[in-house]
Give the backbone structure.
Amino acid sequence: MNKKILISGGAGFIGSHLCDFFINNGDTVWCIDNFITSEEINIKHLLKNDNFIFIQKDLINLNEEELKEKFDYVLHFASPASPVDYLKYPLETLKVNSIGTEKMLNVALKSNCTFLFSSTSEVYGDPLIPEQNEQYWGNVNPIGPRSVYDEGKRYGEAIVMAYYRKYKLNTKIIRIFNTYGPRMRLNDGRVIPNFIYNALNNQPLPIYGDGKQTRSFCYIDDLIKGIIKVLKVDYNLPINLGNPEEFTIIELAEKVEKIFGKKIGFKFLPPMPDDPRKRKPDITLAKRLLNWEPVIKLEEGLKKTIQYYLTLKES
Ligand code: UDP
């Protein structure tokens, strides 16, 4: 049956892929976005669709009474998410994850529907355990420059759990690990678009610190499948979503260089403040609850992503 879905941050990287999923499914989507770190091009193809309602607005200025619909799902994806972005927009990041989360929760409460909060692996901070499972409380610097995002998301999780406990709202929390793919802004500062941007411009790949820090990269299509499954499962505690295949940043740079098939070279730069040394999701819970795990290998996903940027350049 046709569903009504509200998505904040629906013009962003992950949000716009969700909009596509629901529109293709025959559902109706209300998308709120202020383009602070997203781009109109991500939703341009949807703007003429009668089932897509775009509200250009900063979520924290939303008057919840304006939304008269009875929604089936309320999904909160609005937030700067790249370290470069949230260091540039510290207060906006804190507000959208605190005031913004509360507003979205209130909309969900009015509809008494399923609410999903996009949290992050950053709630684990610079983890002291090699694989992060949902029971781990994390190792976060509460006053460092990254704290606007880490603590913003931790507050977000806290208020979501409070609505779950106090109002019995059907809330979901996903902790998204590094995700990549088409529609990430080429200049968003994250490592994969940055490497591709530099490779396309024949510039050495910038590596922050010694490059031995690790990340685990999930392709967007795998993540979207996981999110849709989370919406339907009877479980209200946080669930990790990510690809457990772990790489050092140097290994990633070598892969990008290999795909481009030319000698690009690396450039070592000072480390980012409080940059986590390792990150690898333990997805045992997601596998068991959702029967989900990523299937797209890094090399394949990188090739698809590079192809997307090349097509953009041509158009
Ligand atoms: N990084 C890098 N070069 C870049 C961008 C990022 O070496 O051009 C490193 C960064 O210091 C971090 C990792 O790559 O260790 C992942 O960074 P990203 O900004 O993609 O996301 P994060 O996982 O830190 O949120």
